[in-house]
Structures are given as structure tokens and as C-alpha cells.
Amino acid sequence: AQLVESGGGSVQPGGSLRLSCTASGFTLSSSYINWVRQAPGKELEWVSGINLYGVTTYADSVKGRFTASRENAKNTVYLQMNDLKSEDTALYYCTTGGRPLSRSQGYWGQGTQVTVSP
Question: Which of 36, 70, 66 minimizes the C-alpha distance to 51?
Fold first, then answer.
């Protein structure tokens, strides 16, 4: 079983990206999924969570700019990121692990890099 993130890239401030998190080997629709990011030299930071029914929660730093969603038929969860800022630059992960965050708990993808710069 594994998670695979995709959709990262380099954008200018104010730009948008949509990250995808696709599961293989298990059914994503039965899992609570957290989006987590890690900037260079910093600790893991929780970004967003989405439950089985599509109910979402967000960190204050991304509220109103990021939107998580899920498409169970594709076994995929998305993170739409709008109005990106330089402080959003990080490696983004999706995980079935809960909070407090721990790389030793749940499934984690390999991460997808998001870089926001002029």
C-alpha cells in the first residue's frame, strides 16, 4: 500500500497549483487524509484534513486559499492551492497518519515540491 503525490511545481506569488494524492493497495475513501508540508530546516506543519464525508479543516495560514477535496471513484484526494505565497514553499505530503504528526504513523507519500518565488 502506498500514497503518491503529484502536481507540485514552481509558480509566482499569487499563482495556483492543484496537488493530487492517489492511493494504491488500499481504499482511500475509508481514510481520513491529512495534507502536511515541510519547509527546509523546519518541522512538519499540518495544512489540511479531509474526512470520509468530505468535511475539511485547515490551518489558519492557508484558510481561504487552500481547498481539499476527494474523488473516491479515482481513489484520489486533492489540494487546490490558490493565491500562493512565498511562505507556502515546501515539500507537500499526504498521509493517513493523524496528529500529532509522525512519519512513523500511517502511510505517507514521497512528497511533491511546491516553490513560490517571483
Answer: 70
- Residue-level pLDDT at 111: 96
Give the integer Cα–Cα distance in Å for 85 and 40: 16
Measured in Å, how far apart are the chain's first and last C-alpha atoms? 38
Sign, Cα dihedral of 50, 110, 59, 82: negative
Q: pLDDT tens digits for 26-67?
A: 888 888 999 999 999 999 999 999 999 999 999 999 999 999
Residue 98: predicted pLDDT = 87
Our CA angle for 98, 102, 106, nearest 5°, is 55
- 2 contact partners, CB below 8 Å, separation of at least 6: 23, 24, 25, 107, 109
* Cα pseudo-dihedral 113, 18, 7, 38, rounded to 10: 20
1 — pLDDT class (breaks 50, 70, 90): confident
Question: Mean of the per-residue pLDDT values for the chain?
Answer: 95
